[in-house]
Amino acid sequence: MPDLVALIAAARHLLPAAVAVAAASPTQTAPPLWPDEVLPNAVPRRLAEFAAGRAAARQAFALLGHPAASIPQGPDRAPIWPRGLNGSITHSATLCLAAVTRTPQLIGIDLEPATALAFDLWDVVLRPAEQATLQGNPNAPLLAKLMFCAKEAVYKAQYPRSKTLFGFDAIEITLAENTFTARFARSVPGFDEGHVLHGRYTEIESHFLCAVTA
């Protein structure tokens, strides 16, 4: 069984005190979804992850003193949060984590298995400058996956403001010890070219966990 207590503690360390964090396992039966939390044609595994993520988010609501509420999925597949709240949900096959805060704070979290990023994906995920920083590093495949995780967290954080879909090349990640910066390589609504978001990361339960707040 995954150690959800350890996962929550790791997330708490990465995120501001005002952010409520809760976790669940998609391998355990989650409370029923609310009627408007539909996920058409989802396979059982995806439905289990979706339900666990919503259950974790409602646990986070309670930590903020907010009543339980539905979290439907919009046409863009992003969660529709109750008025006055903003959050981020991330999941893998074994872990689900939700982080919820009061608006207007932006927040993005992402969990990815701490495994190598396949080399044939490097040109899709990494900008040339990012690939250059990894040259000659024996941990390059793992660091490439960490960059992927960081970009996913940044995308989730910025989306409520920009409402813009973009590729991995729109963000350039610079890694430091347990922290990273994300520079916008081009402008999107609400974020000018060169704008920088700051994030933190850790490794927990054989996963990378990245978090961004702004």
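Above is the first protein from milestone M3; the second protein from the same milestone is given next.
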Amino acid sequence: MKIEITRVTSWTDVLNAARFTQRKEPKSGEPSVKWKKKIIKAEHSPLRCLMFNIDFYDIPNYTMVHLVRHIHAQPFVSTSRPDINGNMLPREEQKKIDPVNMRLFLNAQEIINISKVRLCNKAEAETRKIWRQVIEELRKTEPELANACVPSCFYRGFCPEFKSCGFEDSELFSLKVTDYHNKL
């Protein structure tokens, strides 16, 4: 399994979208780290101008199914048609664990939103593991954005699930929530 992340638009696009809303002239340079942190923390609409392709290679079909449910990410999934992909197994013989390739075309806000759900301890273990790998790959080029990618309980300060995993009752939970807020 392999994950590749490509930023499609720039932080300058985000900055200039924000400047446009304030009737200011565009700028040509990239904004400061301080400004990036502010707009990520505020989750203002120009953050949606920061677009990415996240390419997944050979992930289990069932994990792909979990990720395509995020409606603000446009998925592109490798076909399971035997006449196209060279796999001569009829579809009814293909398994949920069979590997697929998938591209998610999405914005920074949706990466934060997916993280709230797929990093949760209640998420399926393999999907959680793969999304953690996405965030670690993202951290290499977009550390400020990666720091905002946490489970919903860190983001909210409490567990919104019907049946909690119990982590919110631990001392470590309080430390993790504090660490999250300090990094933003």
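Note on the second protein: The chain has a mean pLDDT of 94.
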